[in-house]
Sequence to fold (493 residues):
Amino acid sequence: MSTQEDGAAEQGPNAEGPSTSSSTEDDATSRDIITVTVGATVPTGFEHTAAEEVKEKIGADARISKDRGRIYFPITTDKLFQVHLLRSVDNLFVVVEEYDHYQFKESKEETLMELQQLASKLPWTNALEVWELNRTLKKKKGYRKGGNGNKVKANSEATDATMADTEQQEQPQAASAAESQTKAETTPDMESSMPDSGEVAPEAKLIKFRVTCNRAGDKHSFSSNEAARDFGGAVQEFFQWKADMTKFDIEVLLNIHNQEVVIGIALTEESLHRRNISHFGPTTLRSTLCYGMLRLCKPQASDIILDPMCGTGAIPLEGAIEFNSSFYIAGDNYDMAVNRTVNNICHIQKRRADKGSASGLPIDTVRWDLCNLPIRTSSVDIIITDMPFGKRMGSKKKNWDLYPSCLREMARVCRPGSGKAVLLTQDKKCFSKAISRMGGLWRKLHTVWVNVGGLHAGVYLLKRTGAVFGQTPEDVYESRGTQGEEKDDKKLS
Fold:
């Protein structure tokens, strides 16, 4: 979520001004280049992938946080615009201060008092300058239209989740959306109960802010809401800003993971993973997770890449935009899913046409039976898909038949010896059994464990063996099983 008017705020309420936003990007960057640390939230499990992208595109060495799902890297302010072009990050923030081994007091009262005192001791200056430059860049490029109020709904969906009191160390973001919203509802009351500082400056000049606390660990004497409330009160008193949980200008982040404490200022208004999809389905993947899966299989120029269970088309769309030297085929056996994919493709094409750029995408959409694909044998280079978990879509009972059939058909269309598959599923037991049955056709190379909506899932990188399809023990076994079933059916009839 973004914060935008903070850079100016650093000087006090009167410093927030339109005059700063009128400065050009070149003026802002050439005037005073400073080095700061930027933090980014990334899909849990793909931290190394995000670090590789940062090194590749920005030239900075990223550090992976102890708290999963976050990376940190240094940048100079003249490269700030490049940070927003990263495809593997969800949210961005500039670091005000970080403590690797923060010594919390034993009692809640002492700890909260210390957090209050911390607000006035932090080096806010550089972070607020970066925030102000970030606001200027976003206005210049047309990212921001109107006030934050237009995006409150989307923002609260993500930020409110961080307000939830996440006690589990391994899953700080695993709370369900409904659960996190319920917990977060108590926070606005606490925050808004803080006294307004309207007497300090005119209402038009008053800067609005909120503090979001994301806490993980079981040895803290305080809750996320209490930390956000008390730290936020001290920030308000120090800057004379006004607390506002919805129509805020600045979002201050307080991230606590065991003894690691990071204070930052948000640079994004809503998660960057929303960039491609306009028509969502029940299991739409984040674009950032799709990007991580695509990087895992390293698409090459002229590769034919297949998503046989495309859903809303999130994976092939991300590929067609970011790895556009390959060609993508998206298919599904549900009419509604195919329609959503087509609509999402049209949305991207229209958006590109409106900007005056080439609107064409190397992607096509088909409705099919995923166990009997209308594709030639050994004609596909990469298969990448999100398989049904058996929760919102399908069932775990059906997966026992579906997974082996899918893997067999995928092996048929995939090139022997060089073909690859990247498959996401949470039904690990069923998938492992299916892979063991298809051992002559697929070899498992690598597994990335990810958090998908609070579910612990695996992204499996498979390599197609050199075995010719139709001549492996798996094929013989499958065909015999089918013949046996046909004989049984005849006897019954």
Q: What stands out?
A: Residues 1-25, 143-204, 479-493 have pLDDT under 50 and may be disordered. DSSP finds 17 helices and 15 strands in the chain.
